Amino acid sequence: MVLADLGKRITSAVSDLARSNVVDEKVFDGMLKEICSALIEADVNVKLVSNLRKSIKHTVNFKELNPNVNKKRLIQKAVFDELVKLVDPHSEPFKPKKGRSNVIMFVGLQGSGKTTTCTKLARHYQARGFKACLVCADTFRAGAFDQLKQNATKAKIPYYGSYTETDPVKVSREGVEKFKKERFDIIIVDTSGRHQQEKELFAEMVQIQQAVTPDQTIMVLDASIGQAAEAQSKAFKESADFGAIIITKTDGHAAGGGAISAVAATRTPIVFIGTGEHMLDLERFAPQAFVSKLLGMGDMQGLVEHVQSLKLDQKDTMKHIQEGIFTVRDLRDQLGNIMKMGPLSKMAGMIPGLSQMMGDVGDEEGSMKLKRMIYIMDSMTEKELDSDGKCFTDSPTRMTRIAHGSGTSVREVEDVLTQHRMMAGMAKKMGKNMANMQKQGVGM
Ligand code: GDP
């Protein structure tokens, strides 16, 4: 990921300065030069970088520096503050209120990640106790409604759309009216995108906007457009006046720094960034937290919010373990909990210092393996899930059926069952210990 590389380069430039015995103007200039070239390589506008350089130099003011001042701290703070300024639009984003219908409309070019992000955002609010739903107003692209339906069903989010109606204004009006009557807190309207900024696209956006009167219009931008983000957001803004932006695919190979800083220059708040294809790959964007994470300083507030929003399901498993039982379903729930937390590296980025410690260890392979294990268990019947797993060892055809159903191999099914047996064995021991402790009156 390019943004992570940018963070590493800036961090190492600052640490080099912190480690050097003498901090003189030459060392300071060297650090500034390295930071600036890292930013330019991450596609940040040259003019913005040059301003950042000037500002840091001005704040530190090396020539007139008081000899008693802690130079290293001062420089580090100046770098941090200027990076925050670079991505800060200086404008507060809209905050939805509970107890009323907040209509959010999405706009953007086709392929930018609009439909995916609509569902991610609905799920985000749903996890925070809002009643959220989706309306598909994309009647232009065949299959758009199916895609939204699929995503929404997976995330258990109510949706509205039509296979036959070709007027997007009508569909969006009907959908929003229906959900308003049903007292949904968050109604997200996905509109159609085109390959280019065509006249009809803009006219359609305006008509939908007039029909659903959104509380907030969000533009979705693909990070790979880099510095062109500024021009594109301006073009959209002239027609559909949006109040916030979500930048997607910041996990990709594109130098996301370009899009983020270009958007900040338009003084429109970036509210979230998309960091992957998974439903949970949506991170709230706040300039300070973003820079803090970029520089490996963590985002503890983000971490706490993230864990709280997950509603990890532990109850049944804990009860089972106390009884010395561990069903296949318990294994599925536990793996699900790990998956809900998101990739390990993402969690590590929120914990100060941990991402540096983990270095370049990739977690793609690990999370793919976990996903396949879950697919396997999702292909089991309720009875099989609640079993102790023995029904599989007695019946190889059962294993073949599951492998077919989940698109995996018998070998992988066996691996899941081995994992389950191991954990069931541990649960049995723990259950016995707990029972003994209870007998002896030891409090738990
Ligand atoms: P739309 O045409 O704007 O509605 O775009 P889609 O929602 O269909 O997304 C286009 C593609 O981008 C899909 O393959 C998504 O899975 C992918 N995508 C969306 N957001 C992200 C993201 O943040 N990261 C990555 N890697 N892919 C994304």
UniProtKB/TrEMBL annotation:
Gene Ontology biological-process annotations: SRP-dependent cotranslational protein targeting to membrane, translocation
Coiled coil: none
Lineage: superkingdom: Eukaryota
Catalysed transformations (reactions): GTP + H2O = GDP + phosphate + H(+)
GO cellular component: cytosol; endoplasmic reticulum; signal recognition particle, endoplasmic reticulum targeting
Localization of this protein: Cytoplasm; Endoplasmic reticulum
GO molecular function, one term: GTPase activity
SRP54-type proteins GTP-binding domain sequence ranges: 269-282
Keywords: Cytoplasm, Endoplasmic reticulum, GTP-binding, Hydrolase, Nucleotide-binding, Ribonucleoprotein, RNA-binding, Signal recognition particle
Protein's UniProt keywords contain Transmembrane: no
Signal sequence, renumbered to the chain: none
Main location: cytoplasm
Keyword Ribonucleoprotein appears in the UniProt entry: yes
Function of the protein: Signal-recognition-particle (SRP) assembly has a crucial role in targeting secretory proteins to the rough endoplasmic reticulum (ER) membrane. SRP is required for the cotranslational protein translocation for ER import and preferentially recognizes strongly hydrophobic signal sequences. It is involved in targeting the nascent chain-ribosome (RNC) complex to the ER and is proposed to participate in the arrest of nascent chain elongation during membrane targeting. SRP54 binds to the signal sequence of presecretory protein when they emerge from the ribosomes.
Notes on the domains: The M domain binds the 7SL RNA and the signal sequence of presecretory proteins. The NG domain, also named G domain, is a special guanosine triphosphatase (GTPase) domain, which binds GTP and forms a guanosine 5'-triphosphate (GTP)-dependent complex with a homologous NG domain in the SRP receptor subunit srp101. The two NG domains undergo cooperative rearrangements upon their assembly, which culminate in the reciprocal activation of the GTPase activity of one another. SRP receptor compaction upon binding with cargo-loaded SRP and GTPase rearrangement drive SRP-mediated cotranslational protein translocation into the ER.
Family, per entry: Belongs to the GTP-binding SRP family. SRP54 subfamily.
Subunit: Fungal signal recognition particle consists of a 7S RNA molecule (scR1) and at least six protein subunits: srp72, srp68, srp54, sec65, srp21 and srp14.
Protein name: Signal recognition particle 54 kDa protein
Organism: Choiromyces venosus 120613-1
Included stretch of the parent chain: 1 to 444 of 548
